[in-house]
Design a protein that fits this description.
Elements (H helix, E strand, L loop, with lengths): L9 E4 L6 H12 L2 E4 H9 L3 H24 L5 E4 L8 H10 L1 E6 L2 H8 L13 H19 L2 E4 L5 H14 L9
Parallel strand pairs: 1-3, 1-4, 2-3, 4-5
Helix pairs in contact: 1-7, 2-3, 5-6
């Protein structure tokens, strides 16, 4: 993958429950960047929560909103963006991420996802059927796309969120994808 310039947006990708938002906030602090959760931004712009958007507009309507938000957010140079787990499904989103930013794949096991997503409340894709089976199916479909996009792949399971963010920061520095404040 081509190296991105200093000041590129950083996209956190991975399955639901991988820690994209929590780790992303810590990473933003380490980089001196702002942080945005794309799902929270969608809700803010819509004036409604994601389950409502799914109920009224369906997944397709939600995905259209998601793409519009990602296009806007990618214009910011120094931002860490936590994407929704399915943001990588649209070719337009994948192209946007690889063309404009650095992509971090937070990888976690399905067992860890089950633990972290709790009852699945607020997560429309987990509202029907067996949650574990749904998460397995989603991971099988999406993991190849996460891996294909990623500039850095890191386990979101080991250690607390701050330690995971520090490991990402180290990887970014070692690969020359970011520069230190003293450069």
């Amino acid at each position: 993958m081509p190296e991105q310039t200093v000041g590129s947006p950083v996209f956190m990708v991975g399955p639901m429950g991988s820690g994209k938002s929590t780790v992303g906030r810590h990473l933003a602090g380490l980089l001196g960047y702002s942080f945005v959760d794309s799902d929270a931004e969608i809700e803010s712009r819509a004036g409604a929560d994601i389950p409502w958007i799914f109920d009224v507009e369906g997944e397709a309507g939600f995905r259209r909103r998601e793409t519009a938000v990602l296009v806007d957010l990618a214009r910011n140079r120094q931002v860490v963006i936590a994407t929704g787990g399915g943001a990588i499904l649209a070719e337009e989103n994948r192209q946007l991420m690889t063309d404009t930013g650095i992509v971090i794949f937070l990888n976690v096991s399905v067992a860890q996802q089950v633990k972290r997503t709790g009852s699945g409340e607020g997560r429309p894709l987990l509202q029907t059927g067996d949650r574990e089976e749904t998460l397995k199916k989603l991971m099988a479909e999406r993991e190849p796309l996460y891996r294909e996009l990623a500039d850095v792949i890191i386990s979101g399971s080991g250690g607390n969120a701050r330690k995971v963010a520090c490991r990402i920061h180290t990887q970014l520095s070692e690969r020359g994808l970011i520069s230190s404040a003293t450069d």
